[in-house]
Each structure stands twice: as structure tokens, then as C-alpha cells.
Amino acid sequence: MRAEGIETVRHILCVFPRYTSSFGTFEYAYPLTDGVQAFMPPQGLLLIAAYLPANWPVRFIDENIRAASAEDFRWAEAVFVSGMHIQRQQMNDICRRAHAFDLPVAIGGPSVSACPDYYPSFDYLHVGELGDATDDLIARLARDPSRPAQQAVLRTADRVDMSDFPIPAYELAETRKYLLASIQYSSGCPYQCEFCDIPGLYGRNPRLKTPQQIIAELDKLRECGMTDTVYFVDDNFIGNRKAALDLLPHLVEWQKRTGYVTRLACEATLNIAKRPEILEKMREAYFVTVFCGIETPDPEALKAMQKDHNMMVPILEGIHTINGYGLEVVSGIIMGLDTDKPETGNALLAFVDESKIPLLTINLLQALPKTPLWDRLEREGRLIHDDDSRDSNVDFRLPYEQVVRSWRKCMEVAYEPEKLFARYQYQCDYTYANRLKVPVSPEMKSWANIRRGLVMMRNIFWKVGVLGDYKKAFWKFALGRLRRGDFEGLLGSAMIAHHLIMFARAASGGQQNASNYSIRLREASVPAE
Ligand code: SF4
């Protein structure tokens, strides 16, 4: 479905802002690849691009790849921007540059939907999801493309049903320059973890696309050249278990049809470990990674944040079960919780060792608007506003410096090269060994694919194995994999490990934010070079 009945033609420039460097965007890994420059294509902007009237020319620029140029702005009649809180400064910078060309600028997406007042200089605020606000915005621009005299706030009251969503305009993105492809099946989550803004923004009753839409999207991603890994960005893939079970057989069939060249990944609650029927189907559909918000191994803390569902099975047992289906667990961890004690850091490091999870995003607690945590801290007078010197807006129970020191220590120790490669070794030997044995398709044997593998191998061997300063740990791991002929395990693990090691060093040296959600923006607003 797309907007209809609009005769006037407008040129729309969609600009996605640059990310502030963060743990979860893997930029240290890019130089080891064959040309990756950005993390994932943004679903929201590409969805809006696909929804615009069919006769409206659209340009999409991801400033993580290249900055919007003067020629782009001269071409455009209006500019659309979208992003998360962490991109706030960059979004305001795009607005400033567009205004220099006297263009109207509209902003949509999660940040403005939660905090419209962060964006006073934009001409149009699109608050909420695709819906009547989107139609209103299109109609206003069709009528008059000049900047309105004052800001217009357009709020979606009537959302477009997800089953009517068009396929995002992936064809506009430079797909080969992304680390991962993204896709969305559902929106919303039935739980209410205290710190999370998903239920407040997108609801507790997950809304869904149809399996047929997902298959059509996957086919389009393939047509656009994105075949390696497709990440389901759903807030919780099993938020509606029946829907997940409905979709999985379609994914299995799609993999059989296309030759299993695509690996799948998703985010889901840890209680997925209690659902062998889902895990088995995920294995058959060639899911290889699941991100679980474990947050903390401390049961008291999980209870306090209303994340009791993480305790439906003992955490380590749950991880082991998930690994048994060939799924590597990636974990979110939060430090600075009210329940944290001076020994929390050491307990966390023990958990990292025991869980054998290689990749944990360890963040300091950050209170996001529209969350129960925000409301509680506001009541308690523990929200800190406008203090650029801090990595969190929460007044912790423990002294701030102690919490940050503990976070830095955890990053430093968890990502010591020897420890990290030992965890990857376990994943190769246990988790990856449990994966579906997929046939070698002609696509995998193609020269283009072999060439990519060779480029990555050259980069990794040269930049890490020869020039790197953790050569010993790398070669111990690499030689073990080479002896087993496991090139795939070697390349994938070494590439991500490099990012983790380098980022953790910067973090423990105080050069990176302690929170992926931090409103402390270290970089000035830098358009891409
Ligand atoms: S389970 Fe995940 S998505 Fe759902 S409310 Fe909790 S943190 Fe948010």
C-alpha cells in the first residue's frame, strides 16, 4: 500500500544521520570486510520512501556512507530525517544544512515520537508510526513545498495496519555497503521491563505483517544483493509465539528454495529456551544468532526491573539450551542498577566466563523518556538533566565514579583477547557444530562469494595476524580453526572479535560512552566525510 490520489510531484530527499560511535555498530570490523561502511539499512526511512506517492522521485542518503551533498539538497523539494536519541545532534545538523537551502524538513522515527521537544527547529514533526500523520504530511507538501511559518506537529492517531505496509524501498540503499540486512515482522512487546520504551512507543500487543509479506521482502533483499545475514529487528521475535510459529515454516521453505545462503538473526526474550518447538524450527530456518536482553545475572535485580521472565529457566541453563540449537546468544547487560553492589562487576565477569557468550553489550543504565524507570526516577528526584560530563542521566545508588570504573573494568577484562577467543572457541566447537548442515549452493561457490572470502581473509591475516598487537591470541584461535577447515567460523569470529577488542580498549581508556543510549554525544555533529 502507498499514498494515493496525489497529482503534484515532489522530490523527496531522505537522509539517515550518522551514528555516534557505539559498541553495537561494529565499525572497527568494517576495514576487515570487502567494503562495508554501515551497520543496517534503516527500516523506517525506507518504509516511508516506499509509501510516498508512486510519482514522487525519492533519493536516500545514509550519512554513515556518504554525506548529503549540496547537489542533493538542490535537487530536493523537501527533506525527511529519522533516527534514534543517540543520533539527535546529527539529525539537528541535517536540519540546519537543509534550511540553508530553504527546504522544509520533516522528522519521524523513535526519537521524535518519544521526545518531540528535542527538535524545535524542524518544520514538521511526524510523531508516531506510519498512518494518518504520514498522509497529512504528504498532502501538506503536495499543496505547498515552502517552509511553514511555524512548526507543525503531526501525530498518528490511525496507524496503517502492518499487513498493509509496503516493502521498504531497499532498492534505494547501497546494500553491499551494509554489514547486515534488516527486516521487521512484528512491532511491540507484551512485557514491561522498567527501563524499556518499546511497550510505551509500540504497544504491548504485537502487531504483525503476514508471512507472505516477509517472504516477498526476503526475495527483494536478495534481488538487491543483500544475502549474507538478515536481522529481524522485531522488539521480541517471540512476543507473539503463535505468530513466530506461523512464520517459521515459511522461512524454512524459503531457505530450501534459495539454497540457505542467508543466515537469520533476531532479538527475543531468554524464555525462548522454554520453547523447543520454536527453537527447532529456527534451527531449520537457519537462524544462527539471537540477541537476548539478559541485563543482569542477579535475580533480585531482574525482579526489581520487572524482568522476571528471564528467570523462567536458570539463565546459564537457558543459554546452553539455545546454543544446543546452533544459536549463538548475544546478550545485553546493564550496570548501574539500584540493586548493584560493589561486587556486581566481579559477579558479572564470572557470568561472562560461565556463559561463554562472546558478545555482550555492557551498558550503563540510562533512563529513556516514556518508560516506567523515567517516571520513577523523576518522582525520586534522581534524573539528571543537562550534565554533559556524565555517561548516564541516572543518579545511581552507588557513587557515579565507582559505577563507571566498574564498567570500564568489566569491558577491559571481558574483552581481553585470550578470554574472548576462548569463548569463540567454545561457540565454534559446541554452538556452531549444532547448526543445520546446509548444502553448498552454486551461489556459495560463485567467484563473487569466494572473492569476498579471500578479501576478508587477506585483511584479517594482514591487519590482525601480522600488524595487530594481539597476534598470539589470534593465531592460537586461527590455527585451530584452520586445522579443522573451519574458514567460516574463523572469518566471522575474528572480524567481530576485532571490533570488540578495539572498542573495549577505547572504552576502558575512557574514549567511548558507557551507554549506547547515552545522550552525551562525544562527537560534534559530523556529517560523513
Ligand atoms: S522484553 Fe525486551 S522489548 Fe520487551 S519490554 Fe522487556 S526489554 Fe523491552
Task: Give a structural overview.
With 529 residues, this protein is α/β, with parallel strands linked by helices. 40% of the residues lie in helices and 12% in strands. The chain contains 18 helices and 14 strands. The strands form 3 sheets. It has a 6-stranded parallel sheet with strand order 2-1-3-4-5-6, sandwiched between helices. Helix 8 (241-258) packs parallel to helix 9 (276-284) and helix 14 (400-414) packs antiparallel against helix 18 (487-508). The longest helix is centred in the C-terminal third of the chain and has 22 residues, at 487-508. The model is unreliable at 517-529 (pLDDT under 50). Bound molecules: iron/sulfur cluster (SF4).
Largest sheet: 6 strands, parallel
Measured on Cα atoms, how large is the radius of gyration? 23 Å
Low-confidence stretches: 517-529
Return the average pLDDT rounded to an integer.
Answer: 91
Shape: globular
Please summarize what this structure is.
It is built from 18 helices and 14 strands. By secondary structure, it is of the alpha/beta class.
Keywords:
single chain; 529 residues; alpha/beta; six-stranded parallel sheet; 14 strands; disordered C terminus; binds iron/sulfur cluster
